[in-house]
């Protein structure tokens, strides 16, 4: 049995992880649950799974949570120290990070230094500090397990193959809700952008899918995680969203990872690795699909994708700056304060004003993140 800490348990990744635990109660046990502000859902999860520790990051939202958990015999913590406590709990075998934003960065490093295997579902740590994370994990021989469906696919295709045999990594994208839209993107509303054709995700990542910023960030993530230049990471539009990733080898052969559009597949693989467990999900019906389609992304209509490549090429603190600027821009669009087309423009403006630190420490990355947020917020 593996003992789990789930950081971001009330979000879509966290809820899917708990569904896997329900499916395999003899394989997994929840030892720590962490949420940002969703007090009531967190309490219901704690009541069901009875972890050793529960953390609500926003102490101001805690209200009467602590006495209710105390009655269940569950330790309660809050804030940044609470995140670290959950990710380094002595009883856990693996920590699943699914908290949106840069808040998960410090606890991921803490988990690695406590020699806890880390499954990463949120892009931000591998975008902001991927080089540092990979270096630290390798130094301490701690597994970094990707949960993002595309990177899980790459990971599975690369297993057993030497790095020198790899020519190219290929990430696929459904193309988002505006793949077929003709004419201007002016006037796109948050409601329209939140209608993803394939995936059910949180609002921020759904907006990133609409702008293709998610693929720009995934390029950075893949380059860092698999230690390969961004120029050797390609993005293809694949509207059926059945092939999640491909690897091209130097001899021209390709390996592809296929699966239904359900995040429980990559989550379960990360949790069960190096084994595979059965599940009760629908089977992939290839005959029913009849055909696959592929096309190259239009970087002029979706400039956020190219910003991801530019940030990866610049390296250092630039990926952290792009990530932070985009978080601010996406939130401003969701609130109705800026237009859809302003998102890439603001991201590019913030990047253009940043002076890159080539070999940053963690402190430098956190400061770059803070600077980018402040500058992005100041733009009108």
Secondary structure: elements and pairs:
Blueprint: E1 2-7, H1 12-23, E2 28-35, H2 39-49, E3 53-56, H3 65-71, E4 75-78, H4 79-87, E5 94-97, H5 105-113, E6 118-120, H6 124-140, E7 144-146, H7 149-158, E8 166-173, H8 190-193, H9 203-211, H10 213-225, E9 233-237, E10 243-249, E11 254-258, H11 264-272, H12 286-289, H13 303-314, H14 318-334, H15 342-352, H16 362-378
Parallel strand pairs: 1-2, 1-5, 2-3, 3-4, 5-6, 6-7, 8-9
Antiparallel strand pairs: 8-10, 10-11
Helix pairs in contact: 4-5, 5-6, 6-10, 6-14, 9-14, 10-13, 13-15, 14-15, 14-16
Please characterize this protein's 3D structure.
This protein has 380 residues and is an alpha/beta fold. Helix content is 45%, strand content 15%. It has 16 helices and eleven strands. Strands 4-3-2-1-5-6-7 form a seven-stranded parallel sheet, sandwiched between helices. A four-stranded mixed sheet has the order 9-8-10-11, covered by helices on one side. Helix 4 (79-87) packs parallel to helix 5 (105-113) and helix 6 packs antiparallel against helix 14. The mean pLDDT is 94.
